Amino acid sequence: MDKAKIRARTRGAVVAAAAAALALTLTACGGDGGGKPKGGDKASTPPAASGGKNTPSGGPSTQSTEVLATISGTDGVEVVINSAKRDTGGFVTVQGVVKNGSKNLFSAPGWQGGEQELRSNGASMAGAALVDKAGKKRYLILRDTDGRCLCSQFTTGIQAGEEAPFYTQFPAPPTPVTDVDFQLPTMPTATIKISG
């Protein structure tokens, strides 16, 4: 074989190898739409309903009139827990109402908890937890892949003298566990009963 043919073959092999490496590199960098969730820019919860009263964003909306616990905080703020239901998906949904009996706007200071990821939830119930004292386990609020809590967010706060419904979702304790403590930063603890 003469030297010209060998050079041509070698050059062709180098070009083919470079093309294959480039194709492999581009495939690895392809991604899934720029890091956005598959549903576009949709939040994990639907936006708050518009209206005169403050409404927390997203989540379950049916409210029970039964009262499992009332937690009285400082400055006339109360958390009334109406239900704690075990769902088939392996989680517990706690629902109720936050009442602002103060003379000032209530923006849930500290309720988002101390964890860095949860602090970005702003005025919310993100710092809530359920505690199974018998099983010695603490269940933190569920969150989506972007770190948003599966809980109510009070984006505009709660006006003086008004109330807003809330929901929080947690991993479910084992089925025999029904009595748990509901904890919310800056508020006293309340024992509630899980149904379902």
UniProtKB/TrEMBL annotation:
Q: Which residues form the signal peptide?
A: 1-30
- UniProt lists compositionally biased (Polar residues) regions at 52-64
**PROSITE patterns assigned:** PROKAR_LIPOPROTEIN
Q: Which UniProt keywords apply?
A: Signal
**Region called Disordered, residue ranges:** 32-64
What is this protein's record name? Secreted protein
The organism encoding this protein is: Streptomyces sp. NBC_00060
